Amino acid sequence: MTLIKSISGIRGTIGGAPGDALTPVDIVKFVYAYSARLKAATPTPKGERYKVVVGRDARISGEMVEQLVCGTLIACGIDVVKAGLASTPTTELAVRFANADGGIILTASHNPRQWNALKLLNSEGEFLTAAQGQAILDMAEKGDFDFAPVDEIGHITTHDFTDEHIKSVLALEAVDVEAVRKAGFTVVVDAVNSVGGVIMPRLLKELGVKVIELNCEPTGQFAHNPEPLPQNLVDLSRTVVEQKADLGVSVDPDVDRLAFICENGKPFVEEYTLVSVADHLFRRAALKAKAKGISLEEATAPYKPIACSNLSSSRALRDVVESYGGTYKSSAVGEVNVTTLMHECKALIGGEGNGGVIYPASHCGRDAMVGVALFLTSLAERKLSVSALKATFPPYFISKNKIELSDKSLIDKILNELKKIYAKEEINDIDGVKIIFEAKKQWVHLRKSNTEPIIRIYSEASTPEEADALGNEVIGVARKIIGA
């Protein structure tokens, strides 16, 4: 059993003792703290009352958690718009659609079925900042509750925002609905029996796609490990080949991560989801700039020709963006860190290497629906198979390792010494230590775990063997530092 409190929310396993699991008491405390912070940060609500949207994925504890969250919110005098079964990006957009003051998403993302979590949104439908999240954690620990009197309790209304989300995706300028319809794609969708089965097939059918549904009943009984990694998508790969489909689409339980399977049953690789979407947008901007005799910056206005991802994401994004004359920037790991950077530089596109696509022209949150619509537009315009499109991108491979330590204090020692040892290389230390071997187009990123005495080590190179060798080299140096 596990309970994890962080600035991005609270998550844990359902069932168990307080402190060891996510209990009803934890949920009430955390939602109360969120409500109190909302009122303090927004003295004058947008409507007559403060209003918060609540949406959830399909996991089996969702209804129980939803009742606790909604009950606590109205006990605090806040009106609730219950979105029901809704993806994370749907709930994020719903905050804006409903002109609400905030939102709470009930999802443990790619974690197994026994997990659930509360993710907190501001009035823009975006995740709270680190400082805001920490303030809520501090308030929840105090346990000072002051609920509304009976005449001031809030009210609950229900609204399904699925159609509004789909319409917003279809209306994006960079999504060519007619081109996709004319292409006549066949797509297999694996929604792992969660809310992706509610929205993804409907979006694809609106795009004129023939949809073959796999695990699309939102029962919460996940058909396989819900993280959309190749080893968990064997049935999807087989079905794509058997049905002679053009594409396989996999999403996690809350539909903010997107992974593809090529027509030959091979993984497109999660890291390349964002790369392919960025390629579409920058290619489109470059063609526009050439046709109109304008600069790339003018072609991407009101955004800048910049793409962002976190430090552990593939270099392929940088290579593709720079090939069109664009600029690449990196942030610390974490969606809120990526979106913060994107706001600062007015980036055209951003995301994470785990299949997370963030397209500000829609909203600043990872959105698999936006990602798949842009991807299919690219396929239709370029008239390529999925595997042929993948072959146009620079090949990189990431190796993932870790060092387990007996003492957390050794972590900082290792990271500090590595910066000295590799001082001749490019070093980025905004989040752990990233060593960039520019001449070889390779890198190693070391980050410490927030919960365990572990250093996570990602390394990337142009072949799997080189990526493994690079990671092992740095692990060997790290062990020498501590005499292990």
Question: Helix coverage percent of residues?
Answer: 25-40%
What count of domains describes the coordinates? 4
The percent range for strand residues is 15-25%
The average pLDDT is 94
Largest sheet: 7 strands, mixed
Number of strands: 20
Low-confidence stretches: none
Q: What class would the helix/strand composition place it in?
A: alpha/beta
In the CATH hierarchy, what is the architecture of the largest domain at level 2? 3-Layer(aba) Sandwich
- What CATH calls the topology of the largest domain is Alpha-D-Glucose-1,6-Bisphosphate, Chain A, domain 3
Shape: globular
For this structure, what is the CATH class of the largest domain? Alpha Beta
Helical stretch count? Answer: 16
Radius of gyration: 23 Å
Strand ordering within the main sheet: 1-2-6-5-3-4-7
CATH homologous superfamily heading of the largest domain: Alpha-D-Glucose-1,6-Bisphosphate, subunit A, domain 3
The N- to C-terminal Cα distance equals: 31 Å
Question: What's the topology here?
Answer:
Layout: E1 3-6, E2 9-13, H1 24-41, E3 51-56, H2 62-75, E4 79-85, H3 88-97, E5 102-106, E6 115-121, H4 130-142, E7 156-158, H5 162-170, H6 177-183, E8 186-190, H7 196-206, E9 210-214, H8 234-242, E10 247-251, E11 258-261, H9 271-292, H10 296-300, E12 304-310, H11 316-323, E13 327-331, H12 335-345, E14 347-352, E15 356-358, H13 368-382, H14 386-391, E16 397-404, H15 409-421, E17 426-428, E18 433-437, E19 442-448, E20 454-461, H16 464-481
Parallel strand pairs: 3-4, 3-5, 4-7, 8-9, 8-10, 12-13, 12-14
Antiparallel strand pairs: 1-2, 2-6, 5-6, 10-11, 14-15, 16-20, 17-18, 18-19, 19-20
